[in-house]
Amino acid sequence: MPQLPWPLRDAWLSRLVVRAQRGDREAFRALYQALYAPVSGYVRRRVPARADAEDVIGQVFFRLLEGLARIDPKRGSVLAYALQAARNALVDQARGRGAHVSVQASEDESLARVDGAAGPLEQLVQSEQEARVRAELSRLDPETRELLVLRYVDGLRHPEIAQLLGLSEAAVRQRSSRAVRELRARLNETDPAGALTHDG
Fold it and tell me: Residue 6 — pLDDT band, cuts 50, 70, 90?
């Protein structure tokens, strides 16, 4: 996906969806290419086995193609819709195996970027502080950790997180702010110099 400011990104993805709904195969190909990195990153941070992750990613794009006519860009972000499809596919996969359903990023992978690029949260910390941040993230409850990962690693905006998690935007903003304060306080306890100085 091109690095566009979010309003342009959303408008571009919305136009691709509308064109794809009209049967434009090139538009669907462009939509697939634009959504592949964020969807695969979201899935791979939650599914440790590469083959299983690829299965889930394939299911997500099959579902997107199958349900293309139902996507309404006026009702929310296309990216959040795609990540909701990924979240649903993860739940279905876990249920099919009789496993515990978890859609939170794994503790070890919560800061990792699949594409190797530095993510927004990684830019907030110095390389020598990353281990401390990982340790403190792992001590947060799973919902709080997931919120931070969605915001600072997956790069989602508050409205997209709200759409994905089924919460109000106000609740997401409040929880996000509280989560950053909690993480900052934990980091400041171990290093009074303050590892985290930005609350996004």
Answer: low
Q: Are residues 125 and 181 in the same domain?
A: yes
Instruction: Provide CB contacts within 8 A for 79, sequence distance 6+.
Output: 9, 10, 13, 35, 38, 156, 160
Residue 114, in any domain of the structure: no
Distance, C-alpha 40 to centroid of its chain: 10
Q: Which amino acid is at 133?
A: V
Domain interval for residue 126:
120-190
**What's the pTM?**
0.64
The verdict on 84 and 124 lying in the same domain is: no
Q: For residue 153, is pLDDT > 90?
A: no
User: Vertex 75, ends 64 and 113: CA angle to 5°?
Assistant: 55
Q: For the segment 116-150, what is each residue's pLDDT rounded down to a tens digit?
A: 455 555 555 455 567 777 788 888 888 888 888 88
The domain total for the chain is 2
Burial class (CB in 10 A: 0-12, 13-18, 19+), 123: exposed
